[in-house]
């Protein structure tokens, strides 16, 4: 049954050729639109939009510059996103988007202008990865502008960001990890390096650990926060908040670590250690002492831990949970280089299960129970 005819000022509803329903109304003599999959959805959205218009809650995009709008958007997300995420969006908007596109009217921004902006940033020497981050910030802000009814479309959806070259992960092998931990013995941060090597923690998560996050008797560790640029905050995702089982190697190192303050790894004033200071004052010296490549990054410890666990037959799901990945597909994507070698172990396991030739395990690859036990300090029972 057809609905009642909408009165003057109540807007109109129609269906486009592509099947999508559209609601049209006016604000200060200018047309605005809301969309939906069904007529009922659009009717509800239209009623809400007109109520907001009548209450004076609708802004006129014609009077917004992109810089003005980004300020408004950043204020709106400050309570809904992690502080570190908001800070990164603010920096990208202030340092890159604002100086070039800030004076452009929000309603006049178009795909060609944005595409040219990305090309100019690449020409200035910015990496493709940084430009992709700029694209993400701009796209998310414009997506919200569409939801607020300020613009009909997100122009970033019609723009192609640069491709980020995929760099091959070069993890440390078991002997190199053992050399790293051997070189760390006797240093103030021996427990930190052992913890990173045996759990795969992100460096920010490790530096934000407090003693009450640890239960050394139960050999467990709760990951509840992270530190970024000196500020402690909650992790970005729900999966990052997790409980990790500690190896006996890690427990022993932590028991010997000096308790100076609330944070496990802290400065003389009791604050979390600055990551840049850690990298420049401790990590580089540790690499030299262990005779490891100087290009090895702090984050490579995490990659090395994951690679060692996977290569020894630890289930991908378990490794993914230890690392705090949001989905196991992330783990599979990052550590695909380990999977081909694991097929050898899988084939041998089937031979063993079905009466074929008994499997022969290599020292750097195990399958099933008991495989997670390489020799050396990393191989002690967990």
Share of β-strand residues:
5-15%
Query: Mind telling me the C-alpha Rg?
Result: 27 Å
The H-level CATH homologous superfamily of the domain at 174-297, spelled out, is Intergrase catalytic core
Distance from N terminus to C terminus (CA atoms, Å) equals 68 Å
Give the spatial strand order of the biggest sheet: 1-2-3
What class would the helix/strand composition place it in? Answer: mainly alpha
Domain Tyr recombinase: 167-348
Keywords: DNA integration, DNA recombination, DNA-binding
GO molecular function: DNA binding
Pfam families: Phage_int_SAM_3, Phage_integrase
Summarize the structure.
This protein is 45% helix and 9% strand.
Question: Keyphrases for this structure?
Answer:
single chain; 382 residues; mainly alpha; DNA polymerase, domain 1; hpI Integrase, Chain A; three-stranded antiparallel β-sheet; 14 helices; elongated
Write up this protein.
Residues 167-348 form the Tyr recombinase domain. The protein is mostly helical and 382 residues long. Among the domains are: 21-58; 62-158, Orthogonal Bundle (DNA polymerase, domain 1); 174-297, Orthogonal Bundle (hpI Integrase, Chain A). 45% of the residues lie in helices and 9% in strands. The chain has helices at 39-54, 66-77, 83-101, 111-123, 128-147, 174-184, 190-199, 203-207, 248-256, 275-290, 300-311, 316-323, 328-334, 339-353, and strands spanning 12-15, 21-27, 30-36, 214-215, 220-223, 226-228, 231-233, 242-245. A hairpin with a 2-residue loop joins strand 2 and strand 3 (30-36). Mean pLDDT is 86; it is low at 361-377.
């Amino acid at each position: 049954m057809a609905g009642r005819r909408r009165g003057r000022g109540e807007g109109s509803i129609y269906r486009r050729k592509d099947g999508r329903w559209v609601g049209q109304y006016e604000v200060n003599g200018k047309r605005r639109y809301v969309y939906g999959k069904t007529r009922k959805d659009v009717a509800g959205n239209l009623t809400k939009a007109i109520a907001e218009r009548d209450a004076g809650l609708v802004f006129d995009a014609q009077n917004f510059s992109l810089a003005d709008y980004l300020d408004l958007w950043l204020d709106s997300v400050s309570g809904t996103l992690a502080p570190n995420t908001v800070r990164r969006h603010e920096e990208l908007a202030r340092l890159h988007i604002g100086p070039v596109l800030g004076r452009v009217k929000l309603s006049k921004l178009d795909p060609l202008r944005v595409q040219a902006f990305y090309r100019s940033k690449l020409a200035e020497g910015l990496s493709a990865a940084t430009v992709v981050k700029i694209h993400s910030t701009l796209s998310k802000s414009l997506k919200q502008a569409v939801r607020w009814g300020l613009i009909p479309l997100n122009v970033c959806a019609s723009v192609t960001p640069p491709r980020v070259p995929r760099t091959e992960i070069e993890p440390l092998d078991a002997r190199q990890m053992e050399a790293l931990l051997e070189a760390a013995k006797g240093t103030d941060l021996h427990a930190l390096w052992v913890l990173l090597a045996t759990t795969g923690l992100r460096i920010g998560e490790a530096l934000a650990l407090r003693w009450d996050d640890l239960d050394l008797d139960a050999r467990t560790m709760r990951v509840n926060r992270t530190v970024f640029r000196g500020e402690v905050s909650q992790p970005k995702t729900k999966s990052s908040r997790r409980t990790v089982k500690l190896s006996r190697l890690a427990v022993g190192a932590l028991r010997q670590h000096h308790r100076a303050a609330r944070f496990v790894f802290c400065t003389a004033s009791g604050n979390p250690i600055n990551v840049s200071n850690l990298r420049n004052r401790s990590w580089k010296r540790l690499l030299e002492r262990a005779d490891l490549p100087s290009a090895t990054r702090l984050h490579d410890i995490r990659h090395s831990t994951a690679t060692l666990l996977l290569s020894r037959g630890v289930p991908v799901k378990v490794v993914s949970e230890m690392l705090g990945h949001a989905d196991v597909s992330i783990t599979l994507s990052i550590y695909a280089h380990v999977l081909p070698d694991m097929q050898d172990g899988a084939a041998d396991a089937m031979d063993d299960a079905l009466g074929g030739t008994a499997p022969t395990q290599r020292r750097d690859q195990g399958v099933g129970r008991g495989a997670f036990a390489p020799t050396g300090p990393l191989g002690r029972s967990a």
